[in-house]
Hints:
Elements: E1 6-12, H1 19-32, E2 37-43, H2 50-60, E3 64-68, H3 75-85, E4 90-93, H4 105-109, E5 117-122, H5 129-146, E6 158-161, H6 162-165, H7 178-183, E7 189-194, H8 208-226
Parallel strand pairs: 1-2, 1-4, 2-3, 5-7
Antiparallel strand pairs: 4-6, 5-6
Amino acid sequence: MSTHKMTIIVPVFNEVDNLDRIEKTFKEYFAQSKTKSKVLFVDDGSSDGSLDKIEKICDADNNFEFISFDRNYGLSTAIKAGIDTCTAELTGYIDADLQTTPFDFDLLLEHIDNYAAVIGIRKKRKDTFSKRIQSLIANSIRRALINDGVIDTGCPLKVLKTDVAKKIPFFDGMHRFIPALIKLQGEEIKQIEVRHFERIAGKSKFNLLNRSIRPLQDAFAYRWMRSRYINYKIEKAKIETQSEKPI
């Protein structure tokens, strides 16, 4: 088990211009937070030198770790790999663009004892007009097809109990449905307003295709899975443990 209470997953795909700021911001956050946390970079096949920078950050500070893919797999795979790797009690998630701030993790952590997950709602979004329109379309589609009560499913600031996170059924595109997938387990979530900032460096990886057409496809995939999802809780058991098995 990790000596850190929370592992914060930071997926990285060609974000070399943001990494110095990520390192500085997280060090400032770690210094003032009551929750002992560390960063887990998941390099998603970057080709701009991000991995070299990540390795230097991790070599210099044990509060930063990384895994690196052999090629680009996409955001859902990066998040799944981070959750699979996490051994801390809590799993945090934030995007590498730092349009949300790690300091707001403390707002979410105030409530995590009573919920399976606490997720952010971006207040006064600072995105471009086209990005806001694309998000509006995607969220409208999701609400119409799923109606899960989640206000801002695309907010990248989240804290999840790791044992719950590891049960999430994963598929490509699942990062848009994390709160809904947690609710499938019969768990409760809480939504909290967090701050939102303009992107300072790097380029957004989102466009009309992956903000509207793919979310529509994924919403239908989620509806299909929801109707067939298996969920159970064991009340009592007596099973043979590994140590009891004959040699």
